[in-house]
Amino acid sequence: MSQPLPSLSRKPRLELVWVNKENRPRLEPRILIEVHERSYCREDGDDRLIFGDNLLALRALEHEFTGKVKCCFIDPPYNTGSAFAHYDDGLEHSIWLSLMRDRLEIIRRLLSPDGSLWVSIDDNEAHYLKVLCDEVFGRRNFVANVVWQKRTSPDARLGLGGAHDHILVFAKDASKLSFNRLAVSPDKSKSYRNPDGDSRGPWTSTDFTAQGWRPNQMYRIVSPAGAAFDPPPGRCWANVEAMFRSLLADNRIWFGVDGTARPRIKNFLSEREGVAAWSWWDNSEVGHNQEAKKESIALFGPENVFTTPKPERLAKRVLDIATSPGDLVLDSFAGSGTTGAVAHKMGRRWIMVERGDHCHSHVLPRLRKVVDGSDGGGVTAATGWQGGGGFRYFRLAPSLLERDAHGREILSRSYDQRMLIEALCKLEGFTYAPSETVYWQHGHSTERDFIFVMPRVLLFEELVHLSEDVGADRSLLVMCLAFRCESSAFPNLTIRKIPSHFAARCEWGRDDYDLPPGVANS
User: Cα angle vertex 150, ends 144, 155, to 5°?
Assistant: First the structure.
């Protein structure tokens, strides 16, 4: 008996498959604790440097910053073979894909509707990462694969030396994306001339024909010197005849020095709003590895140079295209702090995350120099930066739950009441906003829905008074260690025990998501 043919009405969904792909972390939404002695706020500002595991930090940012990041520019570990030295290539590759997937999913949620992701990567994982990003962002939101010429000469050790890295660009929603045009570079502006002494200044000319055959664009043109031109075979003029006459009267048509050349249209440098970026970035325009290393030496000294820096001009190109002054920029793999330093100089707001020791040895001193105006390198001159602003330094709070001597999960003893209230607000999806006048308003989810945290046993009489204070037109989530009544006794109160109410919700006590559970760093 013949089998029916499969339906062709729906295309099969192509999917990248790897070992343990289905395993996803249950992330605890940690709170962030400001370390004031490390913050550097000469003026008002809320730029943030976060020290800690970047996956937990991204999760910590979600409640406040979902939909607010205009550009995320990251330079993740390239998985070149040294990142996971104890594992064979297959497992190593799978681990890397899982690590990236978990982070990309949160980054996508953090991006604004018109935001974009830019990921620097080399050939080792670029093509797998492209497919992974297709899954997370959707293929329709792929924008470009920028090729950055990172070297100035071939690698002599190889027969075919690598000269470039990739920067994969994805939109949160391509239908809402609008990139900025780039200023005309000094090299490109040299191609503008003014052979006819036009008062509007230098110009270049472009072809005045278009592909195809359109009846109203097939007229004959006669130059001032009397030379007659018809459109070339297979082409037509670029505009209808009335528009051509208007351009001619405005001295925007060029027939060559002697007036006998085929017509071209004049494009004035003074009228250009910029040029559209393309996907080939020459190192003469955006820098290269050697330039980045020199910048690092100037900032940190030859004995403390960062091993894999990116040139400031590269970050500036990304931010020139993807952002405007005041927009929020995120880099969750801060490295030596290039993205934040450049964003600061360009008047963008920024958040960076770094868990390595170089957060303190490189990023902090670098950002202080930017704020002070004592960093004269990189794009300082190009941006006209002279110092100002500031930044705040945060660390991830410890896990909310810890185990006691009997292995039971209990509230962490490092949490005071303020920290506990903030943590439970974040865990339950409330905005942390303690009222100065209403004792039971510790946070809110709407104008009528509040949360109250009391880390002790609440008696029935206390709950009666609390219900009366809340009133019939408002609702309150009460979080306490225990309570002496039925949980449904009060229609305007939802009463929950801590920590039993949320103990199974997250992975508690885990501070390192660079490797899967049970795998130690080498």
Answer: 125
299 and 392 belong to one structural domain: yes
Q: Are residues 249 and 338 in the same domain?
A: no
pLDDT for residue 85: 44
Residues 38 and 163 in one domain: yes
What per-residue confidence (pLDDT) applies to 62?
96
Which class for 230: exposed (0-12), middle (13-18), buried (19 or more C-beta within 10 A)?
exposed
Per residue in 269-302, pLDDT tens? 888 777 889 999 999 999 999 999 999 999 999 8
Contact call for residues 405 and 60 (beta carbons, < 8 A): no
- The answer to whether residues 296 and 372 belong to one domain is yes
**48-51 and 390-396 as β-strands: parallel, antiparallel, unpaired?**
parallel
CA distances from 264 to 35, 49, 85, 220, 271 (A): 63, 53, 61, 14, 17
Least confident segment among 92-96, 448-452, 474-478: 92-96
Domain count for the chain = 3
Do residues 354 and 210 share a domain? no
Domain that includes residue 461, residue range: 401-497
Measure the CA–CA gap between 107 and 53, rounded to whole angstroms.
15
